[in-house]
Every structure is written in C-alpha cells, then in structure tokens.
Amino acid sequence: MDATKRVIVPPVPGKPASWTLRVRQAIDRGLPMDHLLPDRQPYYVGSWVYVFGVITIAALAWVIVSGVVLSFMGPQWWHASSLGRFFNSLHFWSVQLFFIFMVLHLWGQYFMAGWRHGRAATWMIGVVIFGVSILTAFTGYLSQQNFDAQYIAINAKDAMNGAGIGAFFNVLNFGQMYGLHVMLLPIGVTFLVVVHIVMVRMRGVVKPIDAEGGARP
Amino acid sequence: MDSPASYFHWGFILISMPNLLVILGMIVLFAVALIVPFPHGKEGEDGRH
C-alpha cells in the first residue's frame, strides 16, 4: 500500500467532519448575532439596577487606559509631574468606581438570584473576577513606588508567609508584584470579564422571579 | 489629608469613617436605583423595549 496515500474518512451523517464547521455551527446555535448585539431588551431590564454592570465595564476601560499610560511613562512621571499625578489619580479613582459598582452589581444579582436557569457558571465566573480583581488591586498598591507601598509590603509579608505562599508570592519583590499587576492579572481580569459578558449574552438577562412574558427563560 | 482617619467603634464593629461613608453611600445608591423609575423607550408587541 502506498504510504503517502491519504485515507478519506466519510462524514458521519448529521455530524460535519470539519472541526471548523462544527465550531461555527456551535457558535451560531449558542451565540447568534442578535443575542450578542441585541437592539431590544425584555421589559424587566428597564431598571437602574441593570446599569451597575455596565458602569463597572466602563470603569474597567478607564482603569486599563490610564494603566497603559502609567506603565508607558513610569514611576518618576506619575509621582513628579502634574500630568503624571493626574493619570495616577485617574487610575486610582477608576479602580474605586470599578470596585464600588462591581459590588453594587453583585448585590443586584444576589437579590434577583442571577444564577437561575443555567446561569450558575456566569455567577461563579463573576465570583472569580471579584477575587482576581482584589489580587490585582493589592499588587497595584504594592507597585506605587512610595512609602505607602513599602508600608503595605512590610506588613503584608507576614500574612503571606503565615499563609505559606511567601516563597512564590513575595510582596517585597517589586519586580514580581509590578509584573503581576501590569501583565498577568489584568489579562486575567479582562479575559474573564469578556467570558462573563459573552455568557450573559448567550442566555440573556435572568428573568425576575415573578416576571411573566419577556424573552428567553 | 495626612492625618489618620477617625474610627467608628460599636461592639465588635471597628471601621474607619471613610470606609463607613463609602458603604453607606453604596447602600443609598442601591436603594435609589431600585426606587427611581428608568426612562422607557417605545414598547414592542412582545413586551420588549
């Protein structure tokens, strides 16, 4: 038999042989464009409570934009120049807004039991985003390059060592904390937020407990 | 700005005034979001906006 001869596997009826086609069909089924970018919403979405999540995303965008500028210019700039201090403050206050509105979004979803009808994974990813965000903020406080950052690092090291993670998460190691803060953790938060939003769009906004009609369950 | 924050101490609860004010502000904002009516657009036949 010719070793170079390709074996053609006949397609199984109902299941395409091409993996790209299978993925495309799965995306078409799970996330059609009118779910991803809807132009209309069920009547129960008409509440200010639903705005908290959107404000959280807006605050995250400001955090990322101001953070990119700060990482590009460096600590001397953000401490010693007026424009640098402005961007430093922009970064700090957008983080405050991010956390405040993330918690308000959490309260809203908790009281409407947002994990119902197959949305448990969406809720759990939100929980993970909250945890990773705290870690990102913590490494940010350690990356300020001022006495405040040194005070936090010196005090936090004992807690980290007490928890047994000091060997691979050394809060006195500025390079490690800064690298985590500007690279790995923001990528993690942004990726999880994108997954969270896509999952919300796949299933739609959860129906209020006593709601009738509207859209998807 | 450089002076330490004052603290609210009630039983086992110990919290700085700035943190307490932020939390109270969040509770007020949450209540306002539930009470204040949301501006509605034109409603479709299926009850969607």
What tags apply to this protein structure?
A: 217 residues, mainly alpha, 8 helices, 66% helix, globular, B: alpha+beta, 1 helix, 39% helix
In short, what is this structure?
With 217 residues, chain A is an all-alpha fold. Chain A has helices at residues 19-30, 33-36, 51-73, 75-80, 82-111, 120-142, 147-162, 174-203.
- In percent terms, what proportion of residues of chain A is strand? under 5%
Terminal CA distance of chain B: 48 Å
pLDDT under 50 segments of chain B (min length 5)?
Answer: none
Beta content of chain B comes to: 15-25%
**Which structural class should the secondary elements of chain B be placed in?**
alpha+beta
Total helices of chain B: the number is: 1
Number of domains of chain A: 2
How would you describe this structure to a colleague?
The complex is a heterodimer of chains A (217) and B (49). Chain A has helices at 19-30, 33-36, 51-73, 75-80, 82-111, 120-142, 147-162, 174-203. With 217 residues, chain A is an all-alpha fold. Chain A has two domains: 48-112; 115-207, no CATH class. In chain A, α3 packs antiparallel against α5 (82-111) and α6 (120-142) packs antiparallel against α8. The longest helix of chain A has 30 residues, at 82-111. Chain B is of the alpha+beta class. Chain B is built from one helix and two strands. Chain B has one helix spanning 17-35, and strands spanning 7-10, 13-16. In chain B, β1 (7-10) and β2 form a beta hairpin. The longest helix of chain B is centred in the middle third of the chain and has 19 residues, at 17-35. Chain B is elongated and about 50 Å long. Chain B starts with 6 loop residues before the first strand and ends in a 14-residue tail after the last helix.
